[in-house]
Specification:
Layout lengths: L14 H5 L1 H19 L7 H8 L3 H18 L3 H6 L3 H6 L2 H7 L5 E6 L3 E4 L2 E11 L8 E10 L5 E5 L6
Antiparallel strand pairs: 1-3, 2-3, 3-4, 4-5
């Protein structure tokens, strides 16, 4: 005679399950809920926002490359290539003594460039951190500044504002 309540048609195959069907249903429901919550736990940004943040226009990339080339020339003490990347206005704002000191082989310079921003068409500003270790320094501290890159009249990119001029 069948017992009142829930029963499975094939009771011989699932005797343990039939006895503990409430606990099994609870365990199954808990497992499904846990899998769903872990799958969706990581908050994913909207597709449009991510796409907009990761797409850069070609002028931004060219300006970033120019800033990187200038700072790399500074790091490698290559004054000739660095001066080629400067605008006339930038050359006038910095004294020859300051340039000579920045390119001296006695100092070790390293840099970090952060994500820049477009100020207007053909002009970008990049935050930089300069690390300089001279012969008399034991530790390097970052000096935070900015480097301004502009598109010149002959469609080249050049440094308009030097990082140590922006304080």
């Amino acid at each position: 005679m069948a017992k009142p309540g829930f029963s499975f048609p094939n009771a011989r195959v699932l005797p343990r399950f039939r006895r503990n069907w409430c606990a099994s249903v609870f365990l199954l429901a808990f497992s499904v809920a846990a899998l769903q919550s872990s799958a969706f736990a990581a908050k994913r940004p909207s597709v449009n926002k991510t796409a907009a943040e990761n797409i850069f226009d070609p002028p931004y990339v060219a300006a970033l490359a120019t800033a990187n080339r200038f700072l790399y020339s500074l790091q490698m003490h290559d004054q000739e290539n660095a001066l080629l990347l400067l605008t006339t206005a930038a050359k006038k704002t910095c004294s020859e003594d300051r340039l000579a000191m920045m390119f001296s082989p006695d100092s070790t310079i390293s840099y970090e460039i952060a994500r820049g921003r477009k100020v207007k068409s053909g002009r970008y500003i990049f935050p930089v951190a300069l690390f300089e270790i001279g012969s008399h320094h034991r530790w390097a501290r970052p000096r935070y500044s900015q480097i301004t890159v502009i598109k010149t009249a002959d469609h080249d990119w050049a440094i308009e504002k030097l990082p140590w001029a922006a304080r």
